[in-house]
Design brief:
7-stranded mixed β-sheet; globular; Aminopeptidase; alpha+beta
Amino acid sequence: MSFVEIRDLVESDLNKVMEIENLCFVAPWKLEDIQRELNGNQFATLLVATINNEVVGYIDYWITFDSATICQIAVHPNYQRQAIGSKLLEEVLKDCYAKKVLTITLEVRESNSKGINFYTKHGFNQFLVKLNYYSNGENAIYMMRGVK
């Protein structure tokens, strides 16, 4: 595998992030949503994973006091199953540990078994089901893990 670099997301990454977003999600965010996270949300941190300066994945998470929430994580389909998502998540865990965050939470579509397996592998536990959470009526699995 090529060397993966994790760095802060910048404006010039947005086109590639949107491509990944549209390839990976049932209901992708719009460009304005990601721009708002990047420029208008004081709690949000956005990171990208790059290989040879090409953006191949990203993560958006919020830290509020002693908890964090993963809002989005995606890796371009051509680069999945190469531990890039794991590297992004490891960066979040390091940041959360440094900032004394106690727990990290997220929601994942009930039908997204690949995502649920990924999060379970990384220490997240299913906490509860949020009924009709998504716009299409699908339930969300609410998952949580401690920061160690």
